[in-house]
Amino acid sequence: MRVKKAVVPAAGFGTRMLPITSVVPKELLPVCGRPVIQHVVQEAVAAGITEVILVLSEGKEAVADYFRPNKKLAEQLLRTGKHAELQQLERIWDMAKITVVYQQEQLGLGHAVLCAKDAVGNEPFAVLLGDCIIQSDDCGSFTKKLVEAFGSYDRSVVGVEPVDECLIQRYGIFEGAEFEDNVFHGKRVVEKPDPSQTDSNLAFCARYVFSPALFQQLENTQHGLHNEIQLTDAMQKLLETEGLNAVKLEGERFDVGDPKGLLYANLSM
Q: Has residue 225 got a pLDDT over 80?
C-alpha cells in the first residue's frame, strides 16, 4: 500500500531555544533561508507524501499558517509586480495538504503520534520529527528510502545512524542484523540504554514509516516516566508482532532544536 500521509510532531515548546521560542515556534526558525518545517515537509513530499499531519499545541498555529495561502499578501505582491516572490510562496502553499491535530498535553513522542490516529486512518504513514533536518549523501529524500524499504519488505521501518558509545544513552537504540547493504532486521529496540546493556550503536534518527498497527500498540502502551507514552515501547511490541526493519542513514542529521545545532546546520548545509 502506498504511503501517502506523514505525521510531523511539532507540539513542543522549544525550551532549549528560549527566549525566541516564546513568540516564534522553533519550527519556523530559519536554516539557509527556509524555516525548519519547510525542510521537513519538502523531504516528505519528495518521498511521495501528499498529506502532512502537523501535531501542534495551542499557540503554534503559525507553523500551519506558513503553508496556507495569504490572500492579502498575494494581492499586494501582484499590485507591486513582485511575481517571482508570489510564485515562490505559491509553491509553498501548493506543496501538500496540511492537516492539524492538537496534542493537549505533552505526554511524550508516542502520545504525539497517537494524537494523529484519526487523521491517518487505517493506512501506513511516515513520521518525521519537526526539529531534525536530514541531508542524504545522494541529495535525495531519506524518507523516500524508508518508504521504498517499507514497500519492498512489507513491514515497518525506521531510520538509524551510528553514534559514539558515549552518546548511546541519549537515544533510542535499534538492535538487529544486516541482511542487505545498510538494511537491518530488528531483534530489539530499547530507549536510552546504558552502553553496557546493548551491543548496538544504531540510534533512531527522527524518521520512521509505520503500518497502522502501531496505533494499537501505542494505545496498549503503559505510561512511563513523567506519565509519558514512549514510541520506543510501542515499536518493540510492533517488532514482536509483525517485525521491524531499519535503514542506515548515509548522510547527516541536523538536530536544530537547540542553538548550537541550528547554527551548525546553517553553516554546514
A: no
